[in-house]
Structure formats: C-alpha cells, structure tokens
Amino acid sequence: MLNFVFLGPPGSGKGTQSAKLIEDFGFIHLSTGDIFRAELKSGSPLGLEAKGYLDSGQLVPDEVVVRMIEQKLDANAHNAGYIFDGFPRTQVQAEALDALLESKGMPLNQVLLLEVPDAILRERLTERAKTSGRSDDANPEIIEKRIRVYQQETLPLTDYYSKQEKLSRVPGVGHIDEIYARIRIALSI
Ligand code: ADP
After folding, report:
1. 86 CB within 6 A, ligand 1
2. What phi-psi label fits residue 170: left (phi over 0), alpha (psi between -120 and 50 degrees) or beta?
3. Given CA atoms 154, 158, 164, 167 in this order, what sign does their dihedral have?
4. HSE-up of 70 (CA within 13 Å, CB side)?
5. Is the backbone peptide bond immediately before 88 cis, with ω within 30 degrees of 0?
6. CA distance 100 to 92
7. What residue ranges do the domains of the chain occupy?
8. Ligand 1 pocket, 68 CB below 6 A?
9. What is the pLDDT of residues 55-78, one digit of tens each?
10. CA-proximal residue: ligand 1, atom 16 (nearest)
11. Torsion of CA 12, 13, 14, 16, to 10 degrees
12. Which spans in 76-187 are helix H?
C-alpha cells in the first residue's frame, strides 16, 4: 500500500497526473475538489454547504472537509493506496489526516509538492476555464484569491511534512509525460 498527498497550487496539474497514476497503478483518488463538485451537482446538503466557498475561492471549513474524508476512507477500507489530492490544505487538516490514518493503522508514505510559477498557473487556469465549466476558473479575481489562499494556508504544510521527512519537490513545468516521469521517480514506482 502506498498512500501519498499531492500538494500544489491550483492549476499545478495534480488532477492530470493523478489520472495517469490511477490508470497505471490503480490508486484510489480522493480529490476533495472533485467530491465537492459532484456533491454540488447532485444537490446534496454537503454540496449546498460547500457552494459559496467554492464559488468565491475560499476554503470549505476544516470540520466539513475532515468529516467527508473520514467517510470516504471508511467506505474503502481495503485497497492498494490513496492519492490525497487537494487535501490537506491547512495545518488543522494535515493533523487530522495524520490522526485518521494512524487510527486505521495506515501509513502516509509520502508528500509530493508540484511546483509551478504563479504566472503559469494563471495562464493554465484561464485556459481551463474555456472547457471546465468551473466558475472559480472563469474569474481572474477568484483565481488570485485561490493562489493567495494556497500561499497562506497550504504552502506552510511543506514545513510540516519536511519535518516528517516525507516531502519531495517535483518541478511541475514541462510536458505532461516528462512531469509524470519525475513523479514516478519521486515515488520510486
Ligand atoms: P484547485 O486545486 O484547482 O483550486 P480543487 O478542485 O482542488 O481546485 O478545489 C476547488 C475548491 O474546493 C477550493 O477552492 C475550495 O473551495 C474547495 N476545497 C477543495 N479541497 C478543500 C480542502 N481540503 N479544504 C477546504 N476547501 C477545499
């Protein structure tokens, strides 16, 4: 079992690279953003609760996110490994994930940080808006907000995971396959 966290700013390519890893290795993908968008689409109470945060580029409250991840982990107790994508995004969430995995006797093996300069993120998100249908991609102010929230809330997690000696930095600029090769090297798979 290999469980790892994908850290990286919005638009860094975590979803794209996760899809390739799932196809090749069969990981279970826990993308909090994807889950919230699916809940929203189905009109569930959780989706409605998350909507305002997603639309404005703010973080959904920690307790809502942690409860959701807890349920997803319970629902899939036995498997080859999880990719945590978009979670944790705050110190509180990182500590909650450690506690949750420990309670289940599961390791968190590694944390990959996909590094992409802000100017390239803006370009990618603006381009993605043309096809994603995501309102948070379509508005430049919301994009800036998400990048700021990432820098303030999520980037400090690199310290947290460096101290645990789990952090690997992967340059996220280049051809998709080239980045994928770097990720496989970082994960030794
Ligand atoms: P991106 O990484 O491109 O910003 P995501 O799909 O990961 O997009 O997340 C979209 C939105 O979902 C975030 O801006 C936030 O509102 C919400 N969200 C996703 N994951 C979390 C989380 N772990 N904690 C709080 N909010 C989250």
Report:
1. yes
2. beta
3. positive
4. 11
5. yes
6. 12
7. 2-187
8. no
9. 999 999 999 999 999 998 865 656
10. 54
11. 170
12. 91-103, 118-132, 135-138, 140-149, 157-163, 176-187
d(CA 125, CA 131): 10
Identity (one letter) of the amino acid at 54?
L
Size of the chain in residues: 189
**Nearest CA owner, ligand 1 atom 10:** 33
Q: What pTM did the predictor assign?
A: 0.94
Tens-digit pLDDT profile for residues 174-186: 999 999 999 999 9
Question: Cβ distance 110 to 187 under 8 Å?
Answer: yes
Task: Look at the block and give the residue holding tokens 């996909």.
Answer: 114
Q: Which of ligand 1's atoms lies nearest the C-alpha of 136?
A: 14
Which pair of structure tokens corresponds to residue 50?
Answer: 């998350």
Tokens at 52, concatenated: 């305002």
CATH number of 2-187: 3.40.50.300
Query: What phi, psi does 7 have (nearest 5°)?
Result: -100, 150
Residues 6+ apart with CB under 8 A from 102: none
Pocket test for ligand 1, best of 55, 59, 116 (most atoms within 8 A of CB): 59
